[in-house]
Amino acid sequence: MEPDIDPRLGTIYLSEAKRLLKAGGKYICLTLAESHVVGLLFRKFRFGWKVSLHAVAQEPSSGTTEQRAFLFVAEKYLLTVISQISFMDEYSVQSHGNQVRELFEALERENTVRAEYSNGTDTCYSLKDLKQGVQGNIGVLVPGRGINLFLGETGVSRFFYSCLLLDAHPLARPFSDQYRVLFIHSMQMFQRLLASNVRPWVLAVGQSAARLLIVALDANHNVSPIEIVNDIFRFIEQLAPRDDIKKVKVKVTHADEGYKQQKIVSKVTSTLSGPIAIDDVIYFNPPGDIPNTHDKSKDIIFRRLRFGRTEAFAQSEALLSTQVQNKKVPAASETLKRMVESQPSDSQASTGDTNVDHKYLRSGHDKGKISGLLLFSIHSKRTTSSGRLVKTVIIGLGAGLLPMCMRNYVPTLKIEVVESDPVVLNVAKEYFGFEEDDCLKVHITDAMKFVKERAEGHNSSKIDVLIIDMDSSDSSSGLICPEAEFVEEPFLLAAKDSLSDKGLFILMFATCYPGVRAAAYSKLQTVFSSNLFIMHVDKGFSELIFALKKDSPVIGEEELAQACEALRRSLEHNKGEWVKRALDDSKKIEPLRKS
Questions:
Q1: Helix (H) or strand (E) holding 13
Q2: Measured between alpha carbons, how far is 138 from 128 in angstroms, rounded to an integer?
Q3: 220 with 19: CB under 8 angstroms?
Q4: Region at 63 (left for phi over 0; alpha for psi -120 to 50; beta for the rest)
Q5: Strands, DSSP E only, in 259-376?
Q6: CA 491 – CA 520 distance, rounded (Å)
């Protein structure tokens, strides 16, 4: 965990340790409680862990104050629970010098954060609670009842499971099943369900079950579906309606439902990022904004990039096309049907040339980033008449779709991408047609280090636009995106200092915990003060935060409307579909209200 060697190593080590522990398993660390070690341990063991600190007894020394050793103990628990850290020993801060005083100050700060994060978190019941009747008689169907609960038991099951129990309203037709269990292999998808008042019940109706138990699986549930069912089944059967307890029906499905064909193109494993999968899919209902799709009989193929350690089930989705003249990538055949039938084992085995369409972005947040960049560039009257390109830095490469699309649509940008993992860069080049040139470069380095160096550098190295575009690899942070470090005050301060005078900071943000959201907003408002803006994307589940370095003049709704009109005038000679989307999206940006 030595940051001077490589700041990423401690994170990688703890991620693997956490992944290997079963329910009730303990991670124990003997530490001198240096600030960088304690800070990392506190951040990495938040949601889903019971944490305690213990002072290690040692012989009293004569005349000298030695550094004391401590035991950090984290017990794996329920993902949706965040607990205060307890210090298990009576200890005199005054008699043990700076080391203990600094530890207690760090502990107090962390417990304050944990208290903020726990605000607004829904109650999650155990099976024991339900059997005791806290939500009525669980053996009887109660139409319209929804219960957040967790299943699993220390010493009994290998994992804990976050669940949602729904008793459906009666339908005009009989239910197919009295009780059905649905496994969703994406914590992100599950959290979307929890955040919605409608989606869970739509799903319950679609399953045609009187009682539906939705079980969320994340990257930590790293065993086969059969092992998962065997691990949880003893708890599942206790939630069956009383007259159906001998006829429990378990249906295992995936969060990827919605596609009719899938082909695994390649799988690789990275030391830094873990398992990475590239697949091609055809959806039953593809997006309606795909250009040049007049022939509805032809299947539309998307290539996806998926990281096994993140909670997003697809980090990037690229439109594959045989029409555009971009760099060719390992091909999917004309339709995936042929691929599935022949089942080639090599990603190069399919015939035909396939291209990635780098002028199309599927995700709403990627489109929103371009819209926000254009809007605030118009407002700040940033020009390129002198020939100077707009220095843009993107943290996180993924498949490289965002920088490639930005290069196509906004040629006045000089783009630098910061990516920690060289394997990700290789995947982007080989399977998604990513290319570097004079105006698009990739740096393989640590993002924190890169931004800090720019913050401390000369004005010539300052950034005009800084975009944070990465998912969280750690569900215990309470964040889906970004990594927790990117919404902490030290990074936000460095990010602001790295910006040029008219600089713009763009942050992709998603969490299902109101306390985590409020804490992030508070830190953003502390650092960026007045000119903070928000755009809701992905049906309100995700957000884009825009922050200007300059606190004045303050930009209000009237000024935003004027900037939207100025943007419309500047693009009126461009008739492409992307222009209409950019203008529509720019009108969704609004000031971030004080929390």
A1: helix 7-20
A2: 11
A3: yes
A4: left
A5: 259-270, 274-283, 301-307, 316-321, 328-329, 354-356
A6: 12
Considering just the CA atoms, what is the radius of gyration of the chain in Å? 26
- Token duo for residue 342: 């022949």
Tokens representing 316 are 């990037």
* Phi, psi dihedrals of residue 55, rounded to the nearest 5°: -80, 135
Q: Please measure the distance between the N-terminal and C-terminal CA atoms of the chain and give it in whole angstroms.
A: 35
| Among 18, 126, 150, 16, residue whose Cα is nearest residue 74 | 18
Q: Which residue has the tokens 């060289």?
A: 422
Amino acid symbol at 21 = L
pLDDT tens for the chain, 595 residues: list them.
555 556 677 888 888 888 888 888 999 999 998 988 999 999 999 988 999 999 887 765 554 557 788 999 999 987 777 889 988 666 555 556 788 888 989 999 999 999 988 887 778 898 999 999 999 999 999 998 999 999 998 889 999 998 999 998 887 788 888 888 888 877 777 877 777 777 777 777 777 888 899 998 887 787 888 899 899 999 998 998 876 555 555 665 655 557 788 899 999 999 888 889 999 999 887 776 676 665 666 788 999 998 877 655 567 899 997 544 445 566 543 333 332 222 333 333 233 457 899 988 888 888 888 888 888 777 666 544 455 788 999 999 999 999 999 998 888 899 999 999 999 999 999 999 999 999 999 999 999 999 999 999 888 889 999 999 988 888 788 888 899 999 999 999 999 999 998 899 999 998 888 889 999 999 999 999 888 999 998 777 789 999 999 887 888 888 888 888 888 887 777 767 777 788 888 888 899 986 5
